[in-house]
Amino acid sequence: MIKNYPYKYRDFARISAEASLAAREQGKYWEMHDLLLTRSPALDRSSLIAYAGELGLDVEAFTASIDSNAHAGEIDRDIALAESIDLYNTPTFFINGLQVVGERPFEYFKKMIDEELTRTGG
């Protein structure tokens, strides 16, 4: 499960979270996610709308979604959750209750998951 935690001191973090969720509405969350990572720091409104066009999204619906902050409630809930567990770094992963902060290679996660499966008999 993915949660949003837009850093309040980072330009365009909030609208980028809105953009990823607006893309999710049209079945393109991961595609938008990848564009946001590779195109950063160009994450202003007009760039986000251009990315929506690149992905073949309904640009009018996408724009209406980000302009209305359609996902503000979901984003606010995600922020409250992060703060309630003292999470202040992204990315942060939880695997069977174990916290992993920061990017890690696939092998790291595979080893950790395999160890947890062995430990729990899964």
Automatic annotation (TrEMBL):
Annotated InterPro entries: DSBA-like_thioredoxin_dom (IPR001853), Thioredoxin-like_sf (IPR036249)
Keywords from the UniProt entry: Disulfide bond, Oxidoreductase, Redox-active center, Signal
GO molecular function, one term: oxidoreductase activity
SUPFAM superfamilies: Thioredoxin-like
Domain DSBA-like thioredoxin: start-end pairs: 15-113
Domain of life, per lineage: Bacteria
Keyword Signal set for record: yes
Name of the featured protein: DSBA-like thioredoxin domain-containing protein
Organismal lineage: Bacteria, Pseudomonadati, Thermodesulfobacteriota, Desulfobulbia, Desulfobulbales
